Queue: 2 jobs
Job 1
Amino acid sequence: MALERIDHYLLQTTDLAATRDWYVGALGMREGPHPDFKFPVVWLYLGDKDVLHVSEGGRNVSENRKRYLGQESQAESGSGVIDHIAFFGTGLKQMIEHLQQLGIPFQQRMVDDQGLYQLFLKDPVNDVKVELSYANAEAAAAGIRPQLTASELR
Amino acid sequence: MPVTELNHYLLVAKNLEKTKKFYQRVLGLKLASERPDFGFPGYWLKAGGNICVHLASQAPNRIRDQFLLKKHPRGTRGSGSVDHIAFLAKKPEAVRKRIQTHKVQMHYRSFPDAKLFQIFLKDPDDVTIELNFLGEVIDPGAWSGKGSASSVTLSKSRGRRTAAARQS
């Protein structure tokens, strides 16, 4: 169940294009491929790694986004626009059992065409949403099914 | 590429000890012994050998506020308690030029003993970003301008609306 690295963070913004342009222009990130989530996202890369996911924020976010990801805050500025921080790990089954043993609630999602299996949970002390992502193959091998997959959204 | 990888985030925790325990016990992160004495309480935590979570406490602390360049009120919750996101970077002069070209306000801080140089800036949504240049010792004279020795503002324009943002 070891977490291996910090993977990405997700920013929600009322101006997707301006945020993308800023990270590309000021920090030299590169816009790159992303799965089809059925809601607007931009993925920004450093080298070959997507490190920043940008999604719609504020008051008027789409129902698909809310269904898949929820929305932690409608803040439009400051660190409240960070929806979650993600880690990548191995040992999905062990992590699920571990969380269940500790009685920590979590949600399961799957990004079909990206091969990612995601657990979302809250740091209960600070109410910060944390994503744990694993290779989809781990879930398939263990017969683990998500509550919702990105392709189920319309 | 000057900004090379995502490195860590810093959480200003409502309860420092409980938060440390959450990351250790629930997520299995390991406590790092490398954290220097910053003069304010906190922890560093590792995943896969890499320090990727920094914790500080919401308890009022003047030194912490100086380090983070802002006051942290008690009672912050949710992602509002994430103070900043940090990246590793290379070529500070090139990064400085790039940031200045986009008329973004920044601060810098040099730790010559630790051979670390940092640039702090705000993204268009006012999120603090920290860039870490490992192994870099900066000539303070070349970077001096307004402000204190450890922190200087190179551009007076606000980061909120950048040239790039206006073009879109």
Job 2
Amino acid sequence: MSIQQPIPEATPATTVVVRTARNRSGIFGGRPMWLIWPSIVLLVVIIGIPLLIAIYISFLNLDQYTLRSWISAPWVGLSNYITALTAGNVIGASALTSLGVSLAFSLLTTLFITPIGILAALTVNTTYGGRTLVRSLYLIPYVIPTFVTALVWRQMFLNGTGLVDRFLAAIHVANINTYWLLGPNSFWAMVIADTWASWAFIYIMVLAGLQSISHEVYEAADIDGANAWQKLTRVVLPQLRHILGLALLLSTLYHFNNFTLPFVMFGTPPPLQADVLPLNIYVSSFQLFNFGLGAAMSVITLIIMLIPGFVYLRALRLGEVTAS
Amino acid sequence: MKGNIRYVSYWLSLLLLLSLVLAACGGAGSTSSQGQTLHVLIGYNSTYPAQQKQWMQQIAGEFQKATGSSIAWDTFSSSSEEQTKLQTSVVSGSGPDVFSFGTTFVPTAQATKGFTTLTDQDWQLVGGKDRFFKQQLTMAGSSPNQLISVPWVMRPFAMVYNKELFQKAGLTAPPTTWTEFVQDAQKMTNPSAGVYGTEIDPSDSFDPWKIWWMFAGQLGGSFISQDLKTAQMNTPEAVQAARFWFDWATTYKIVNPNSMAWKAGDATQAFANGKVGMLIMTTPTLKPTLQKSSVADKYAFAPMPTIPYGMQQRPANGVPDATIVSGDMLAVADYSNVKNLAFKFINLVTDEQHQIQWTKTFGDLPVNVQAANSLASQDPQTAAFIKAEAGASPTPFTGVWGPLEVALAGVSSKLANEVATNRYDPSHIKPLLDQANQQIQGQLH
């Protein structure tokens, strides 16, 4: 390598200009984007590669016999997907039924926790004595580990001896021996337990959103003669649209993927009405040793979960410049 | 030129990061300066956690003195965790050197081909085949010269009954036939006091198959054919087995109607509270729990009945299996590079002295023949258990046995669901068993 031209030491300014011009024309505008490489590497190794492996496994017949040399397990094409979508399952519900249960569970839970969360946030939005204590109390259900919540609710829902049945019998609403952990009630037991544990998430998000609403907006509404309900529906909620939308999306996705609560509350195999998709996948893969089927169900779940995410991103038009 | 350097440094930093990450993810095969490390995975003992910790320290110390190498312990607290660890190790080719698992899981473990088959030399290293209880060796591998595991402890199944409730009902001895069992239970049942003759735990993950296996075996049936090629989970014997168990709740009414959601722990708790007359499918390791409960010193163990309901004797091909070959086995992973150390470890924990110590501390019975004989001569209860295990029947040695247990638990759970919601009918049993049969047949090679 040889540089024949004379080094322009008499004109350092020119060199600086050349360097800056080259940077400005770079795609990242001169920002040190190489700092992102560690995150990208970790994402690829921890999420990207396992995802590709899972998709590959979904086309294989992978069981305890072929597990050790899984790369050369027999290829069965779409057979696992067809089984997932059509066959019944002696362990629990078929994959389609599980999907229905999961969707109903996540949508209903989100539906219940939204008004509770919004109301709770409104109660601590104005300053009063003891507000800090109330705020802390609201967070308690959310910070308790899920398996502890599930265990305690399981004890409460046991028929005959659990608190729920004893209470309902005491107020003469239901028989003391009502089954909550089996049968149709098991679905509602799961919804109740998860509603109790997760309303604080909506509360936190809404509270954050409320902080960004300035006083002037409220004052303007007062001047226009709005009452409390009108202020809530015409002023506050529209301002919260974006953050509430995000909270609802995250909440739905979280509840759809919630494995710990039904696993600890019902164990395996779970009752049909509470056989959510993550639990179904776990039993199929790890207990029945049918990893191919479990992988196929996981891929189906992923595709379904991408839909609301995609819709949300399009609705918010994220990434595009929006006028504030 | 500067652009070149920046370009090169980007890729160098990326490569460096990638290699660091992959090195961190790589398996650990550490070697200490004095010797090597043996990784051992055993079940966590929730009844005796402090004693288990002590035992692990003591064994590690003795092992260090004998071989100059150390032991790195790992525990699992549920069979789900054990299975996951096993699956991960088999796929990744790294993990514990020595695994402990239950006898009925050995066939599935062998199917993964992840464990060493012991050669004659290996058997010498672990103390010789003659050292071990013969029945346990029947579950150590698919055939006598394809053994992948070594027996560690025995846990025969039996029935425990409440002596006080027996006395109140005027019963003098535990039942030996299932007809007597139902009659005795009916005599002890007193719904107004919340006391029931026996219990049922259909929502448990592992009890249902064991109980149905016992019933079906006594009727002359089996869940897998002799040649291990055909699933037989929907034969008349299997259907009758499931039906008889649920009859306890629906026909004879000798169990708590709320027990459809029960798991094994709930049933044990009911017995410990004095609400159950007879608790079946338990092991002597229940003793410490019972001694701390309200039925302390008021219980006794007995083998389970062996003659089917309504019959005077077993059918021609019925087996008097009062218990399955049950206990824990130790196996050495094929990927292990300290196999000789592993066999030395197994030798250490299965010699007479250590086996007697284990029984006295944790309650499981010894697999070491000399230890078993010595304990039997001291205590008649132990002698009875050892006798029961000598007559134990091995479960079919097939890789689908693990999934089969889960499939039957699924059938049991669905039937329990029906009983709980008043939609049960005995005619529903066969279609569910047909479905389970089809699913397991699909896995049989």
